[in-house]
């Protein structure tokens, strides 16, 4: 077990996502930067599907009620174990009563904390990923007690996590043309690739909003499937990049679609940072 | 039926796209194809989700997308609708149109210059089709709202629409399965539970269902609410 002493800014339990319920309107959810989450599991010898903690900008403070092993990946947060700095992307042994302070992001947006054998919080519709209206809470709360694998339950697996170059420093997002891309005016198509867009502070797990000063817009469409990474352009010229908690259908023009790798890159960007698009 | 076009949306997502038609037969055919696809490609796919004129096919990580598209083309060319028979479920949804549950029914009546009773009569008359579920978990996109009830959305959306609220937004009508912000005119409330993670399947309605609204009194609303909460409410359904 782990006790939450301080919850942090926006901390949630996430796994690879909730599959099989999109026909019923249930979002997929899952770790925003799936690559870093899988890397944390892989370093500990966990299966890729194990749940991890996703920490946003300011991480939680946790106390362990048992011995285990942890690994922190993603954005650099300067984590401390009993007030002593620890390395990220390395397995770190912890003992009963140890206090882990995840810290603050020095760059990037999100870090992932994995424990040996994974977090064993409640599975709802096949997944442990927090999502409001599906799971009881959408974020961790002070005083929560999180069940984790007991040493005997830990299954070791070797998962190969493909090398992802420069998730944090990259600001060029690779995209496929979306279904409505061909219906855009030529100059709008060009502007989408020639403009550097600033990320709005309103961005969250559902969507990243991009500030647009150039004159672009798209017609509304008959409600159609959307997914994480779908870039929607509204009639009033707003660009919205759907993220892991996105709705399963939408009525705005789907002009671009991010690659899986680019979703992970965008998930590490903060409000005010800039990105641009390039064709795959 | 004309063959749909195939569009690769991302590494592991393929869309089938039909010309927008607004015809219910297209939706039924999408349903039939969806069911057949899941059977034929059970090992390659995670799930498929229909909308009005598209079907999204989500592939497993290990599926080779290019090979899948080849097999899909082949499957679509050979597919004969007659091979499967389509049966729909009619679900009766009780709704209390009483004022305490219907903050906008007067606005809707006034907009069309009709008495409130007429709104109820016209809203409960059609056999609606559930085109698909989207927007929120369990939220049905319904087809069949009479044109004489089409009403513009609220100028400013409400911050909180109560769970079970029945609304009209433009040419659409539907039920809010959970409390959420919303811009539709609320004309009543259903005591049914439209989405519950405790149930399998969690969504009361599914794409392809038919739906009939039935007007109930405040007293009936209370009784049904109690039955629903204790799990003893017998949902009224029939198959056609």
Automatic annotation (TrEMBL), chain A:
SMART domains: AHS2
Keyword Transcription regulation: no
Pfam families assigned to the protein according to its UniProt record, in alphabetical order: CT_A_B
The entry's keywords: ATP-binding, Hydrolase, Nucleotide-binding
Domain Carboxyltransferase positions: 23-280
Listed GO MF terms: ATP binding; hydrolase activity
Name the record gives this protein: Biotin-dependent carboxylase-like uncharacterized protein
From TrEMBL, chain B:
Keyword Nucleotide-binding: yes
Keyword match Nucleotide-binding: yes
GO molecular function per UniProt: ATP binding; hydrolase activity
Keywords: ATP-binding, Hydrolase, Nucleotide-binding
Domain (Carboxyltransferase): residue spans on this chain: 4-205
NCBIfam families on file: 5-oxoprolinase subunit PxpB
PANTHER family to which the protein is assigned, alphabetical: 5-OXOPROLINASE SUBUNIT B
Protein name according to UniProt: Inhibitor of KinA
Organism placement in taxonomy: Bacteria, Pseudomonadati, Bacteroidota, Flavobacteriia, Flavobacteriales
């Amino acid at each position: 077990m782990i006790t939450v002493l301080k919850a942090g800014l926006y901390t949630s339990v996430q796994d690879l996502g909730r599959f099989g319920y999109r026909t019923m309107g249930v979002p997929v959810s899952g770790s925003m930067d799936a690559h870093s989450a899988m890397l944390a599991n892989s370093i500990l010898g966990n299966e890729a599907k194990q749940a991890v903690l996703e920490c946003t900008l300011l991480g939680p403070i946790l106390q362990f009620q048992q011995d285990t092993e942890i690994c922190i990946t993603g954005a650099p947060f300067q984590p401390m174990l009993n007030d002593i700095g620890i390395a990220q992307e390395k397995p770190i042994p912890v003992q009963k009563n140890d206090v882990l302070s995840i810290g603050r992001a020095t760059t990037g947006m999100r870090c992932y904390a994995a424990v040996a054998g994974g977090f064993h919080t409640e599975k709802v519709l096949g997944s442990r990923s927090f999502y409001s209206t599906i799971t009881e809470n959408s974020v961790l709360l002070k005083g929560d007690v999180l069940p984790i694998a007991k040493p005997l339950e830990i299954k070791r697996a070797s998962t190969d996590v493909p090398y992802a170059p420069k998730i944090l420093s990259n600001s060029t997002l690779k995209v496929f043309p979306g279904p409505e891309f061909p219906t855009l005016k030529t100059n709008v198509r060009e502007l989408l690739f020639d403009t550097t867009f600033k990320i709005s502070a309103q961005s969250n797990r559902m969507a990243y909003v991009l500030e647009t000063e150039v004159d672009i817009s798209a017609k509304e469409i008959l409600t159609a499937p959307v997914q994480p990474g779908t870039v929607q352009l509204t009639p009033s010229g707003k660009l919205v990049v759907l993220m892991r908690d996105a709705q399963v259908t939408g009525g705005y023009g789907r002009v671009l679609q991010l690659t899986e790798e680019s979703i992970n890159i965008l998930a590490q960007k903060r409000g005010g940072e800039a990105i641009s698009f390039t064709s795959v | 039926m004309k063959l749909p076009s195939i569009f690769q949306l991302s590494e592991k997502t393929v869309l089938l796209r039909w010309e927008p038609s607004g015809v219910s037969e297209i939706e039924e055919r999408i349903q039939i194809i969806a069911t057949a696809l899941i059977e034929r490609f059970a090992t390659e796919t995670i799930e498929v989700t229909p909308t009005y004129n598209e079907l999204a096919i989500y592939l497993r990580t290990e599926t080779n997308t290019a090979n899948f598209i080849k097999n899909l083309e082949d499957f679509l060319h050979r597919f004969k609708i007659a091979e499967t028979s389509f049966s729909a479920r009619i679900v009766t949804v009780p709704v209390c149109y009483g004022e305490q549950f219907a903050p906008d029914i007067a606005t809707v009546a006034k907009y069309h210059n009709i008495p409130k009773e007429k709104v109820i009569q016209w809203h409960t008359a059609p056999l609606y089709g559930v085109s698909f579920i989207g927007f929120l978990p369990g939220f049905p996109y319904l087809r069949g709202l009479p044109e004489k009830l089409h009403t513009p959305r609220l100028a400013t959306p409400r911050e909180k629409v109560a769970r079970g609220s029945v609304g009209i937004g433009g040419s659409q009508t539907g039920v809010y399965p959970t409390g959420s912000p919303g811009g539709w005119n609320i004309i009543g409330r259903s005591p049914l539970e439209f989405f519950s993670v405790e149930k399998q399947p969690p969504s009361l309605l599914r794409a392809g269902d038919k739906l009939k609204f039935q007007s109930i009194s405040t007293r009936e609303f209370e009784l049904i609410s109690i039955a629903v909460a204790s799990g003893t409410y017998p949902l009224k359904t029939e198959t056609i």
